[in-house]
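Support reply, case 0932

Customer input (verbatim):
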Amino acid sequence: MDHTPHPYVHGRSDREAERLHYQASKLAELLHQGIHYPRGDLVLEAACGVGAQTVILARNNPEARIVSVDIYPESLVIAKERVVEGGISNVTFCQADVYHLPFGLNTFNHVFVCFLLEHLPHPLLALQQLKEVLQPGGTITVIEGDHGSTLFYPESERAQLVIQSLIDLQRLMGGNSLIGRELFPLVKRAGFSSVRVVPCQVYADESRPEYGEGVKKIFIAMIEGVRKQVLARDLIDEETWEIGISDLYRTAGPGGVFSYTFFKASAEKTE
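Our regenerated output:
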């Protein structure tokens, strides 16, 4: 089995792991709404990472059986610890590459994918492989962000350049941080039917201070995490970076407005 790691633009530090768990908890209601699996059904969570989404998925579906896979053994260790700490007993873990899944045809009733495709050089192939292990009549849920959906006030050209530097970096690493807008055609091309995509918007202004805090700890923290990489690759100069980051923080403070859209696709396998 090929365990060649997929590049993860945000790195695998303890800080990033905490950011992912914070993001999952704050966005749980928005992203997991309507995801309910029947008792006894077998669910594949593709690329579970540090288990940020695993915990939510398992708690929301305590009578389903969940198999969570990831290519990184160190991430699986953290995910297992989170599950044990949460007293969760309906999850098993397996090291696996989404391009070479160690499961037979038609194994799972459902597949759950969250924040994976943006990091893959071949997202269509990944979806096709996931379809192979899904039973006829089974469902898939795919959730992705789209950094190009970011809207904010006060306007700032430098803040836009900071965001663009991350978009460019991810593209250079073989990923696509604008993939949210492509979910419908991607899932359809992979051979799924009844494809439906729902935009899930996050909106923050000073009347919702808790949302502004989320913008800082999720989105801006994510951007800040690639500082060293984008500067090293000359994707942005240091002065523009510092001013742009400062301007992003203004959008999450008094008088500021921030909006970001996630995209959630659902579909079925009919053949």
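We compared this against your earlier run and they match. Two observations from our side: Strands lie at 42-46, 65-70, 91-95, 108-114, 134-144, 151-153, 193-205, 257-268. The chain has nine helices and eight strands. Please reopen the case if you see a mismatch on your end.
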